[in-house]
Request: fold
Amino acid sequence: MGKKTSIAWMRDGDVQGGSLNTIIGCSPASPGCANCYAIGECWRKQHNTRVGKDFEGTVKGLPDGNRAWTGRVNFNRERLNSVLEDRSRRCWFANSLSDLFHKNLEEEVILEHFSVFARAYWQEFRCLTKRADRLLRLSPKIKWSANVQMGVSVEDIERMFRIVALGKTGAVHKFVSFEPWLSPWPFTAERSVRRAFPMQIDGIEYRALRDLLKEAGVECCIVGGESGRDKHSPRHFHLDDAAYIMEETKAAGAHPCLKQFGTRWAIATNTYGMRDSDGKPVKSARKGGVKTSWPAHLQTYSQEWPFLKLLDYKAVNG
Ligand code: SF4
Reply:
């Protein structure tokens, strides 16, 4: 079974959110992967005698002391099927330590995931990929169901094409994760995402981001700056970019979710080491996630992402 998650947008009232890691292992797809946190987690667990088998061979040590993905992807069918035994209302982030559309994962395994998701109609599954091309290719074979939210990661202007691909799939619910959003550095108005529009993708002109989101049928957008254990590697996140993406999400009729401004912003604004009234460090402050410390015009956006309204297993089956 999966485990509870600390992902902020996975919490909502009584519904329990969690990570469902049925596949483990990955490899970089684009610049957003440069500080992939999952490598460190898989490396540690690979050496853990209790859970090590699931992680076996996924990460290797490099001569310079760093770690890297090997490209091996392990599948745990038992864990996938375990969701069918769980009759409670849950929301799963399906695979936080891999990418469900990774090229080394067999097509049948990907399709099997969506078949199981469809059978577990009382639970919600959120899947996120950077492999929008494979998602689009497999879409006609996927059993899309109303309890799945399918999303693409878009970390910079060059990756906007993934939204177009998402829009062409048969997914019932669609979202975009602009996280970590990588603003250019040094940042100037000319290099902002606002000025990247109008933009042409596949020969079609989009006057503003809202056109892209509307055409793709996107229901929710999450924006966040990069965070990281070490204070120096997280990259830049400019609040003008965040404001534009949130404004456009709203204008497209989708739900805006502004998660955090990232570690660099937290350091620059001296909020990184924030403490609560008991003197304890505020965990989210290190990621720039304390809303009250944000500029007023951005505090109006939600940090939460509401769950889908699904049928309850007990109500249907007695
Ligand atoms: S796709 Fe996700 S899990 Fe895979 S390398 Fe990139 S950030 Fe890491």
